[in-house]
Amino acid sequence: MSLAIFDLDNTLLSIDSDHAWGEFLLEQGAVDPVAFRDANDRFLADYQAGTLDIHAFLEVALRPLAENSPEQLAAWHQQFMASKIEPHILPKGEELVARHRTRGDTLLIITATNRFITGPIAERLGIDDLIAVEPEMVKGRYTGHVTGTPSYREGKVVRLEAWLTDQGLSLDDAWFYSDSHNDLALLEKVDYPVAVDPDPTLREVAESRGWRIISLRD
């Protein structure tokens, strides 16, 4: 039995769920239509370029969680799942997860997107274990702040190592599937790194190192 680790955005999904949530909030009129859109698009471009300031991003991205009630957020997320996420769950991604499940592997999603957004998505995919950015909650409401190390770039390695210790597991014979060069630090840690519909930088690295390259979109 091995550990099968999956990135989420643009790996098991055909979209970036963080950016899609921002677009959804804009459609609901829940955020400033100009400033938030500009920031949402800029941060996505920064992520793709590998230059994202994760703390600056989270300051903006988590603010709507603090500005709205848990009840409103839950209602929005239900709509978000139906309209933005469900159509973008990749069938071949679900098949890949199912193959690892049949093998008896431990399944884990690790993502730089926050748990509010990704928790229900992981549940929809039937994956119990999730490492995500953790929005702070105090007395049942989000504060707009983050707790712990954000699971982004090298932070994914830090969070995963802590999780492995808690679970009594190791990375022996582990798989990691990702589309992004931002995940190189973790891809280098596993025995079976797999580039999934990789961005140009990751494709170049994967080809040079002989890593497996697959598509879940064909």
From TrEMBL:
This is HAD family hydrolase. InterPro entries: HAD-like_SerB, HAD-like_sf, HAD_hydro_SerB1, HAD_sf. Keywords: Hydrolase, Magnesium, Metal-binding. NCBIfam families: HAD-SF-IB (TIGR01488), HAD-SF-IB-hyp1 (TIGR01490). SUPFAM superfamilies: HAD-like (SSF56784). It comes from the Bacteria. It comes from Halomonas tibetensis. PANTHER family: PHOSPHATASE RV3661-RELATED (PTHR43344:SF13), PHOSPHOSERINE PHOSPHATASE (PTHR43344). The keyword Aminoacyl-tRNA synthetase does not apply.
